[in-house]
């Protein structure tokens, strides 16, 4: 990770927090205009530092995954780190400005439950895809047999792509996309002899 930009981002965020917290502790209580200016300036400084820090961390994580050949997993982890970082920065900034965030958190929790229920199958495939990418029960180029009643199998083919939602096989009948959750729930034979390969 680049140390200088990281240091600048951390110093900016911490300075913003200190500046935003100064009005209540250092200033004359009668000087409200200066207190408001310092509060807004500190919050803006914190936002700039927090966003920069989030982007630096997410980019560094993505590069580390790319170096290990896990581009798809790196992309999803980068998105998760970015979203979580931005939400934390935004909630902290709102807290500095004394904006009540309880209703926002409650609304976000309810929305999360509704979206989670609606996207249950898609999320199952994404999480199964992360398991396939991290655990690597098979890799691109392996010849596998997937035995599953749920997928109407068995399917035999060479793995040509691993994604977050599907495993792509090259079979005698063409290209086949199998959902990751179905593949993980199936019996697998990996690295079949060359006579069984496609």
TrEMBL record:
<dbReference type="Pfam" id="PF00924">
    <property type="entry name" value="MS_channel_2nd"/>
</dbReference>
<keyword id="KW-1133">Transmembrane helix</keyword>
<protein>
    <submittedName>
        <fullName>Mechanosensitive ion channel</fullName>
    </submittedName>
</protein>
<keyword id="KW-0472">Membrane</keyword>
<feature type="transmembrane region" description="Helical">
    <location>
        <begin position="79"/>
        <end position="99"/>
    </location>
</feature>
<feature type="transmembrane region" description="Helical">
    <location>
        <begin position="105"/>
        <end position="135"/>
    </location>
</feature>
<dbReference type="InterPro" id="IPR010920">
    <property type="entry name" value="LSM_dom_sf"/>
</dbReference>
<keyword id="KW-0812">Transmembrane</keyword>
<feature type="transmembrane region" description="Helical">
    <location>
        <begin position="36"/>
        <end position="58"/>
    </location>
</feature>
<dbReference type="InterPro" id="IPR045275">
    <property type="entry name" value="MscS_archaea/bacteria_type"/>
</dbReference>
<dbReference type="GO" id="GO:0008381">
    <property type="term" value="F:mechanosensitive monoatomic ion channel activity"/>
</dbReference>
<dbReference type="InterPro" id="IPR023408">
    <property type="entry name" value="MscS_beta-dom_sf"/>
</dbReference>
<dbReference type="GO" id="GO:0016020">
    <property type="term" value="C:membrane"/>
</dbReference>
<dbReference type="InterPro" id="IPR006685">
    <property type="entry name" value="MscS_channel_2nd"/>
</dbReference>
<feature type="domain" description="Mechanosensitive ion channel MscS">
    <location>
        <begin position="122"/>
        <end position="184"/>
    </location>
</feature>
């Amino acid at each position: 990770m680049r140390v200088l930009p990281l240091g600048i981002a951390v110093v900016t965020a911490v300075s913003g927090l200190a500046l935003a917290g100064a009005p209540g502790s250092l200033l004359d209580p009668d000087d409200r205009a200066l207190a408001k200016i310092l509060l807004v300036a500190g919050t803006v400084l914190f936002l700039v530092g927090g966003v920069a820090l989030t982007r630096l961390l997410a980019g560094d994580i993505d590069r580390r995954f790319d170096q290990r050949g896990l581009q798809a997993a790196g992309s999803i982890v980068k998105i998760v780190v970015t979203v979580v970082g931005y939400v934390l920065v935004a909630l902290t900034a709102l807290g500095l400005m004394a904006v009540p965030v309880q209703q926002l958190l409650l609304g976000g929790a309810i929305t999360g439950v509704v979206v989670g229920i609606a996207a249950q199958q898609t999320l199952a495939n994404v999480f199964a895809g992360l398991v396939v990418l991290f655990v690597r029960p098979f890799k691109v180029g392996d010849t596998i047999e997937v035995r599953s009643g749920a997928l109407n199998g068995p399917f035999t083919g060479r793995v040509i792509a691993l994604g977050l939602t599907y495993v792509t096989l090259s079979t005698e009948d063409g290209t086949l996309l199998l959902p990751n959750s179905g593949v993980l729930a199936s019996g697998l034979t990996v690295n079949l002899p060359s006579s069984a390969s496609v």
